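Below is a filled-in request sheet from our internal design queue. Each sheet records the structural input a requester submitted and the sequence that came back. We keep these sheets so that new team members can see what a complete request looks like end to end.

REQUESTER: design group, bay 2
PRIORITY: normal
MODE: inverse folding
CHAIN LENGTH: 426
BACKBONE (tokenized):
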């Protein structure tokens, strides 16, 4: 059955069928051939129960928050401000790509939205200033992955919903690894450009007066992030309520910068509807597929297979890591999460591992899937913004950052407190 699911999933995806539809089709197939009783009679109830959660309301709010900031021009102002502050480092403007992605990750919660935002703003600068297209575009694609790690993260919300794990604790757990990844991206970029200065373009130093004047474009975003995360951690608001507050804050920032218009609001709302519909179709389709897989006994079979191998807890984790790396080459990230979580997480928890810690480890592995071909979404987003050159440039450019993610996964396995330190003290 495992081979049936894997081959069926890959085969249907190659036909360019939407991921959510693919998950339903696989569920129907398993229901017909592998389960001893018909499950379709309960499909309506399953669809309703898998989507009827107040927690999931946070998703459209966070998507709308990011849409408002992007479409109102706040992203462009933030990028220009960060350029003035950190382009003196070896690598120049590439660091502004990573820093902007980090800041928008802390508000939008979406990797694809973050990558699209930074790529749209930054690519014209790369061509004008003569940066190496590989490293420049690779940094944008990698920086965009931080959108699902640094809170608030839509993927962490989905993980918490599916595993019944505390979302505020997941947000806390993702903060240090997310910021550490951003710092490591900057460090790797600087080292590469110190060895090969021609890849980094011109290092620019701005007068202190211009740097200070740029703070007016950075401080509102920092305050917005503080409000969203602070209200959650203080217990003043649930993630859903904090997301609603964040939308109001994003609108106020856009209004202060003069970016609010009827057309901007129309585009923001339409973008929110499209992205949220895609996410919910995947969540509901995966819930149905997981229900059929459980009814067919796949979870028990996989658990018995791993237990029969006689692996230690560390050996089990390494096998799970390998599974996610391989699947990440072929399956879209959100689908990868929602399909595997109900099967893998119980196995990992049974080995004595903390579900909060494993959620962060999974996110790091899913981040890698965003920038590994052939289905790494961020690769296509960045290439689409380039409008010229080969996709190979972007694929080669992300290699150093992929290695950084592997190192972070290894560090999390060796030192779980990287993720568990903040949740344990707060």
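RETURNED SEQUENCE:
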């Amino acid at each position: 059955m495992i081979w049936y699911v894997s081959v069926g999933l890959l085969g249907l995806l190659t036909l360019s069928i939407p991921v959510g539809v693919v998950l339903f089709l696989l569920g129907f197939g398993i229901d017909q051939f592998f389960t001893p009783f018909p499950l379709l009679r309960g499909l309506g109830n399953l669809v309703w129960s898998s989507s009827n959660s107040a927690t999931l309301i946070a998703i459209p709010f966070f998507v709308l928050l990011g849409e408002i900031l992007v479409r109102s021009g706040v992203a462009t102002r933030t990028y220009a401000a960060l350029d003035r502050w950190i382009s003196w480092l070896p690598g120049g403007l590439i660091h502004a790509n990573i820093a902007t992605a980090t800041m928008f990750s802390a508000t939008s919660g979406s990797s694809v939205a973050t990558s699209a935002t930074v790529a749209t703003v930054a690519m014209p600068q790369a061509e004008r200033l003569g940066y190496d297209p590989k490293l420049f575009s690779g940094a944008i694609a990698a920086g965009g992955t931080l959108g699902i790690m640094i809170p608030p993260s839509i993927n962490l919300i989905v993980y918490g919903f599916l595993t019944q794990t505390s979302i505020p604790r997941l947000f806390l757990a993702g903060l240090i690894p997310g910021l550490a990844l951003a710092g490591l991206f900057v460090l790797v970029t600087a080292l590469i450009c110190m060895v090969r200065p021609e890849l980094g373009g011109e290092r620019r130093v701005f007068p202190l007066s211009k740097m200070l004047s740029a703070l007016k474009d950075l401080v509102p975003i920092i305050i917005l992030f503080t409000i969203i995360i602070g209200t959650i951690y203080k217990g003043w608001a649930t993630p859903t309520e904090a997301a609603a507050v964040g939308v109001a804050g994003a609108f106020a920032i856009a209004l202060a910068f003069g970016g609010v218009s009827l057309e901007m609001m129309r585009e923001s709302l339409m973008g929110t509807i499209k992205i949220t519909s895609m996410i919910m179709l995947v969540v509901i389709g995966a819930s149905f597929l997981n229900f059929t897989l459980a009814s067919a006994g796949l979870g028990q079979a996989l658990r018995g297979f791993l237990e029969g191998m006689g692996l230690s807890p560390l050996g089990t984790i390494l096998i799970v890591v390998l599974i996610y790396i391989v699947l990440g080459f072929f399956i879209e990230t959100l689908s990868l999460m929602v399909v595997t979580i109900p099967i893998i997480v119980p196995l990992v928890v049974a080995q004595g591992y903390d579900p909060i810690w494993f959620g962060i480890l999974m996110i790091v592995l899913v981040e890698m899937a965003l920038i590994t071909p052939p289905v790494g979404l961020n690769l296509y987003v960045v290439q689409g913004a380039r409008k010229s050159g080969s996709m190979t440039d972007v694929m080669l450019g992300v290699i150093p950052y992929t290695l950084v993610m592997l190192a972070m996964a290894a560090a999390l396995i060796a030192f779980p407190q990287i993720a568990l330190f903040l949740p344990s003290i707060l």
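SHEET NOTES:
- The chain has one domain: 12-425.
- The CA atoms of residues 320 and 344 lie 8 Å apart.
FILED BY: M.R.
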